[in-house]
């Protein structure tokens, strides 16, 4: 079972879209900000402040980055990156477990 | 912002009831097993193996322990305990953020 060691884990959840997207923020052992989250099926738009690496742990999503015309599909053990101060559309096809890393 | 320090956090989510209840397992700095979770509105029954302390961080639930006739209401900053090898019925009235501690 893969785990993050030596983590600082925020107690309170982040709740978005009426709870259809929720996440837990933490700082990993290297001092990097990350979150582990769940997205229920639906279509969402997320803005970024920092650049993000979104790793799909389970589930299936289609993603269209700002300024692009193409939807790309991501499933377990695939990931996509989003630049800072941007946004992306995401269609969650099945309940999706993800890990987001915020890149300074 | 309250956080748990020096935690080992499991990467993969626990997903129950078609994703209406999800949680993240971790071991806190004292070596105690806990999980942080989200329950969407609905009615569920949970079994326990170890005894549990369920702390409600946000939301509202009604709980009926096995062998009892009474539903009790819990909201933010309240908690209830469940004995080992038992079960409880829970009606989640609004999306609920919780912390569960497993008692050895």
TrEMBL record, chains A, B:
Catalytic activity, reaction form: adenosine + phosphate = alpha-D-ribose 1-phosphate + adenine; inosine + phosphate = alpha-D-ribose 1-phosphate + hypoxanthine; cytidine + phosphate = cytosine + alpha-D-ribose 1-phosphate; thymidine + phosphate = 2-deoxy-alpha-D-ribose 1-phosphate + thymine
Keywords: Glycosyltransferase, Transferase
GO molecular function annotation: guanosine phosphorylase activity; purine-nucleoside phosphorylase activity; thymidine phosphorylase activity; uridine phosphorylase activity
EC number: 2.4.2.1, 2.4.2.2
Gene that produces this protein: ppnP
Top-level taxon of origin: Bacteria
Name of this protein: Pyrimidine/purine nucleoside phosphorylase
Organism: Poseidonibacter parvus
Organism ancestry: Bacteria, Pseudomonadati, Campylobacterota, Epsilonproteobacteria, Campylobacterales
PANTHER family: PYRIMIDINE/PURINE NUCLEOSIDE PHOSPHORYLASE (PTHR36540), PYRIMIDINE_PURINE NUCLEOSIDE PHOSPHORYLASE (PTHR36540:SF1)
HAMAP family assigned to the protein according to its UniProt record, in alphabetical order: Nucleos_phosphorylase_PpnP
GO CC terms, sorted: cytosol
């Amino acid at each position: 079972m893969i785990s993050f060691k030596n983590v600082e884990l925020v107690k309170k959840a982040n709740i978005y879209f009426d709870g259809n997207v929720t996440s837990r923020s933490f700082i990993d052992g290297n001092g990097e900000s990350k979150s582990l989250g769940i997205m229920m099926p639906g279509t969402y738009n997320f803005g970024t402040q920092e650049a993000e690496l979104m790793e799909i742990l389970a589930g299936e999503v289609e993603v269209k980055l700002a300024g692009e015309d193409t939807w790309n599909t991501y499933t377990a053990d695939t990931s996509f990156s989003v630049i800072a101060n941007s946004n992306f559309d995401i269609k969650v096809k099945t309940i999706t477990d993800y890990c987001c890393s915020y890149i300074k």
